[in-house]
Amino acid sequence: MAGNNRRNIAAGSIGTALEMYDFAVYGFLAPILGPLFFPSDDHLASLLSAFAVFAVGYLARPLGAALFGHIGDRYGRKISMAASISLMGIATLCLAVLPTHAQLGTTAALLLVICRIAQGLSLGGEYTGSMVFLAEHAPIARRGAMTAISQTSSIAGFLIGSGLCAFISWQLGETEMAAWGWRIPFIFGAVIAVGGLVIRRFVSEPPGVLRQDHLPVLVVFRDHWRILFRMICMLMMGGVGFYLLFVYVAAYLREFMHFTTARALEINTISLLVILLTSIPFAMLSDRVGRKPVLYGVAIATLVLGWPLWQLLHHQSFAVILSGQIGLALISAATFAVIPATISEMMPAHIRCSGASIGYNISLGLFGGTAPFVATYLVERTGDDSTPAYYMMALAVIMLLALRGMRETAGKPLAVEPIENRADPP
Fold first, then answer.
1. Sign of the C-alpha dihedral, residues 225, 226, 227, 228?
2. Residues 186-220: pLDDT tens digits?
3. What is the distance between the alpha carbons of residues 40 and 26, in angstroms, rounded to a whole number?
4. Contact by Cβ (8 Å): 114, 44
5. Domain map (residue ranges) of the chain
6. ∠ at Cα 80 (79, 83), nearest 5°?
7. For domain 2-204+213-403, which architecture applies?
8. pTM of the model
């Protein structure tokens, strides 16, 4: 049994890392891809176009959540996890060989959008499918820590993507990176996706979970919409904060603070490493004191420290910028360390994949994925570089309201049987 658990943890976590790497590389390379696929005399317009396509991938995530959540609840977690990583590998390979605007004209931009939609569909079911899978295999007292492995895995994927992009930029320089070097991270991602698919062949289904006979998505919206709404409100701030920090800020440092791509990605990589090292301790804390106290702390910290930490990002000193980024990264680490267990515990077993996936991906699709675009637009329109911090602080208030009245779920058995009293299918 211990061996099976180790295989299940490895399959869930490694696959998530690979998928997140494939999805995130586009965001790190957005300042390079903008002029290649959306050429314009106005460099800001090209960057906005690239971020808009980044957002399209996130807007597709709720559809992927419904699709792969349906597969997970109806046909099993294993099939869903294998299908999601296969789609991600195919889409990433297509990105690696995609002609640019100079070679194919506006058709290149259309194909780029299609690839990002496919990636968004895949990731929509992957991350939450993995966290539900880990939650259903975890002991009660360590559910927070075990499900946080999905978070650390996704951060590892981000970290690998940021580190590899930074390394390639250092080796090739700005000119060669824009000419052809940007394709290397995508090629690497397509290759390792094959390895993830092989690993997932050996996972086992969680014990005792009944498969949903009806359409899971309809059951979620019909019977559990209040839980879904609370979940979305609770998650908005974390998604916006994370993608402002690790996508928008990297582009901002490059375009407006005149950092090199490699230098901006170096800051990103260090901050991601901080999250990677602190997520499990925050999750273990939630196992001891509860999910709600940690999440309350996150929202209050954002309200109190969000603006001062954001100001540090506008300093000319590398050390000062890094300290601001690390401060915001710690808030982000606490948020996403606790979220996997919390949303897995909020939904009943028979629609857990669909419910958790839909809630998580609606929030990240509508708010997290659009955050770089919204921040770029607001700063340009208002002339105030602090606008993204105000955005995060407003969402922290919504998070506090969502936490009020929410039941504490830490330390309680994870329901295996459906809430409804229905007979097993013949």
1. positive
2. 998 888 788 778 777 767 666 555 555 567 788 88
3. 19
4. no
5. 2-204+213-403
6. 85
7. Up-down Bundle (1.20)
8. 0.77
